[in-house]
């Protein structure tokens, strides 16, 4: 059972993916200009959420029909709840006097692989024809495609931020990211969100740390489950903010989220797109550490205003933070600035300050990439105690509260600059 089916079976009676209808479509489809049934060519079918992956065998003379096969199946499967079809084509080698077709080729092992895929269709179905067409590309590292210059294969570039439509109810999306775990990213997220709210902004929080969701505990609503309305999640409330986390959906706090990449990214997209977010000035997204599937999905499919990098002065943390910055640069996502967390340890008995993780790391990162150092946060026991109790520093008013508010003020100013930038198209 897919992650989407699992979620829906628990939280909603609706089943968006109709497996029996999918089976009927695949069994009854006849290949164009022939009497051959698709079911006899299928070697593998896999459903991940609302994405269907299918592998079929074809012959060189059928290359001209691959586009039609894909489009016919995509249209029929959409009615079954499938939003994206990935079709992998294995070309069987047979003897022909004529040359290979423009979109298929054979090699010494007797097969050539190609793949066709379609991106998910929006609810308004306003995609252009060029966006709907799937790419036909080489899926075999050992195969060299012979291309007809007058009729080249369809290519599709990776999605870019400029092509991602803006969320109808969210003005700005800010990613709080770190290349390394354990640097205080989630604590920084909730405190900056509360600080921005304190300045009069309407703020929401999405916990995208799929494998280690801690936002529910930090905001004091762990154990609560969101309601379902018209097959959409209704976000929970915490200190006046709309909040949603995978931790609110998995039940007990000690339940592991043992999902592979496609399921994790699919779940994240559902939390963003299938949630009844109120009108928000800012949605803060607590990212998981690293630069893997989830981070790439966020960069390509969610309209992001900017990213905040959280690091410690430690060299190991800085090395990983650099990777995060490079990812955002390649995805054309502005980096708002760097927050140096655990900058100084303050002794709770005598008040002595010591840089136990080193010093100057945030300054080094800021200078290297010409991005602002938004501020430094201390390693203070009160921060940990308050966030563990579900009362973050900005709510508890501890010694770190002013530091978070000062950083949030700089973020708010950066958002004003972004909104006034005439060159932005989203």
Describe the structure.
The chain is an alpha/beta fold. Helices cover 31% and strands 20% of the residues. It is built from 13 helices and 17 strands. It has an eight-stranded mixed sheet with strand order 10-11-7-12-6-13-14-17, sandwiched between helices. A five-stranded mixed sheet has the order 1-2-3-4-5. The protein has a two-stranded antiparallel sheet with strand order 8-9. β13, α9 and β14 form a beta-alpha-beta unit.
Set out the fold topology.
Blueprint: H1 3-11, H2 19-28, E1 42-48, E2 51-58, H3 66-78, E3 84-92, E4 111-117, H4 129-132, E5 137-138, E6 170-177, H5 185-198, E7 203-207, H6 215-218, E8 227-229, E9 232-234, E10 236-238, E11 241-245, H7 261-273, E12 280-286, H8 293-301, E13 306-311, H9 315-330, E14 335-340, E15 345-346, E16 353-354, H10 361-369, E17 373-376, H11 381-388, H12 393-396, H13 401-420
Parallel strand pairs: 2-3, 6-12, 6-13, 7-11, 7-12, 13-14, 14-17
Antiparallel strand pairs: 1-2, 3-4, 4-5, 8-9, 10-11, 15-16
Helix pairs in contact: 5-13, 7-8, 9-10
Shape: elongated
Strand content: 15-25%
Query: Alpha-carbon distance between the termini?
Result: 36 Å
Number of strands: 17
Number of helices: 13
Strand order of the largest sheet: 10-11-7-12-6-13-14-17
Main sheet attributes: strand count, strand direction, barrel closure: 8 strands, mixed
SSE ordering: HHEEHEEHEEHEHEEEEHEHEHEEEHEHHH
Q: What value does the average pLDDT take?
A: 75
Rg (CA only): 25 Å
Low-confidence stretches: 1-14, 95-112, 119-156, 420-426
Structural class: alpha/beta
- State the share of residues found in helices, binned by percent: 25-40%
